[in-house]
Specification:
The chain has about 80 residues and is an all-alpha fold. It has helices at about 5-30, 40-70. The mean pLDDT is about 95. Keywords: Membrane, Transmembrane, Transmembrane helix.
């Protein structure tokens, strides 16, 4: 089991992996269609996107959480 102190890193890893796979998959399919080699092209695009997305999520999530807290009501 992963210690709780690493939860933010695991969160960033999973969210960035899922989102980058979906976005890169959609753009690869739109660009190439169901052509031969589309899975290899998608995998390459996904790894590149994930390499950028993971550190960005680590940086962007804390200020976004603060912004959401500032814009929403707290329960009574």
């Amino acid at each position: 089991m992963i210690p709780a102190r690493y939860a933010h890193i695991l969160f960033a890893f999973l969210v960035s992996g899922i989102m980058s796979s979906l976005v890169s998959g959609m753009t690869t399919l739109r660009t190439l269609g169901l052509a031969e080699g589309v899975l290899g092209a998608w995998a390459s695009a996904w790894l590149s996107a994930w390499a950028l997305a993971f550190p960005l999520v680590l940086v962007v999530v804390p200020p976004v959480r603060r912004l959401v807290q500032a814009l929403t009501e707290r329960p009574a």
